[in-house]
Amino acid sequence: MRRSPIRLNLALQGGGAHGAFTWGVLDRLLEDPKIELTSISATSAGAVNAVALASGLATGGREAARDRLRELWAGVDKAGVPDLIRLNPFLYGLSKSPTLAHMASLMSPYDFNPMGFDPLRRLLNDTIDFDAIRSKSQVQLLIAATDVATGSAHLFHEHELTVEMVLASACLPTIHHAVEIDGKAYWDGGFSANPDLVNQAEQSSTGDTLIVQLNSLNKPRVPTGAREIAAHINQLTFNAPLQRDVEMILKLRGMRSRRWLGRRKTDRLADHRFHLIEAGRHTSSLKPESKVKPEWEIINRLFHAGSTEANKWIDRHLGDVGRRETVDLEAVYMSPESKRSRNSTKAAAVSKAVDDASTVPGAEAAVAKA
Predict the structure, then answer these.
(1) What is residue 243's three-state secondary structure?
(2) Where are the alpha helices (DSSP H) in the chain?
(3) Alpha-carbon distance 173 to 282, whole Å?
(4) Cys-Cys link to 338, which of 137, 171, 227, 334 (CB 3.0-4.6 A)?
(5) pLDDT along the chain (370 residues), means of 10
(6) CB 151 within 8 A of CB 191
(7) 34: helix, coil or strand?
(8) 32, 48, 108, 159, 318 from 163: Cα distances, Å
(9) What per-residue confidence (pLDDT) applies to 155?
(10) Which residues contact 360 (CB under 8 A, 6 or more apart)?
(11) Does residue 16 sit in helix, strand or coil?
(12) Phi, psi torsion values for 202, nearest 5 degrees
């Protein structure tokens, strides 16, 4: 008797060239026919991986998805020194030293790249079949970008997806021009959703989500060098939205004892089961500029690390999917201060929002704001 497939959502964090770790994870998951991927919430490099996987599944199945991911990352390596830099001898010289990162912090991309040239656009157009994704994607996609005007997250879905939307999700404002879509400007989704756990859990019919975490969640020592400081600021900034989502989920779980009032819409989110594959021990030792200056040696190393970690997770936890959560969200994502705040007055605001959600349409948004 054939067993039913193990259904699993994915939540893919951004992290530049460190997204090669995610490639390794995806390659190993696609290799296992027991696993059915149903929904992918993704940001920046995670979004690039997500559309490569979705394009391959839509046009040729699991092996085609693996091939598409491999083709994409071969293209990333080839564009390791972006074409824009190759055409500019001054910038090409800087690209061989840490000076380029410093120059980028002092210059606007509207100054050093006035035409808005972006090699990623060509790579995506050459690699990804967006028509196939829009018409016959086998996975639900939630691709996050940040509305420049409001700072809020905007999620693009598979049925509407274009190359512009993926570029918006991966638009670092110190390197690229803001991406305009329907009259709105967007920056990297990591500022607002990295990735979005809440909407995915609420929208997907699958009750389990595997988070692929690229950025380390803590730094044991205080950074003192200029590049170290900038990298740690980046790490804190891009981890904050994910930690915010986890904090909200934990608060909702803490209120499940109030169910004598009846089941609420937010219980779906509180009951969702999460799992984790973490890249921290593989990426934390890499130089900060390795995120934006991909080299095949590092890409290949991270790919194999991701595949190995995914294999370990499959061996240890695949049987738990659909039954129990395998990551302690509070221990992994919450600082001691955040844990204490869960019993503070802010918890009372969330409690009120949960009560409202049982009667008022769309009141889930009130919980997020609380």
Answers:
(1) helix
(2) 20-31, 45-60, 62-78, 83-86, 89-95, 99-106, 109-112, 119-127, 130-136, 163-169, 198-203, 226-253, 267-271, 280-283, 296-317, 329-333, 336-341, 345-357, 364-369
(3) 27
(4) 334
(5) 82 93 98 97 96 98 98 84 45 44 54 62 93 98 97 98 96 87 96 96 96 83 76 80 95 73 71 96 82 84 97 97 97 71 49 49 44
(6) yes
(7) coil
(8) 29, 10, 23, 13, 33
(9) 98
(10) 366
(11) helix
(12) -75, -30
Position 196 scores a pLDDT of 97
Asked whether the bond before 195 is cis by omega within 30 degrees of 0, the reply is yes
pTM (2 d.p.): 0.83
Instruction: Give SS3 for 194.
Output: coil
What are the tokens at 141?
A: 């996609």
In DSSP notation, 322-341 reads: TT---S-HHHHH--HHHHHH
At residue 115, the pLDDT reads 52
For the record, the structure tokens of 88 come out as 């500019």
* Predicted local confidence at residue 266, as pLDDT: 75
At position 342, the amino acid (one-letter code) is R
Phi-psi region of 182 (alpha: psi -120 to 50; beta: other; left: phi over 0): left
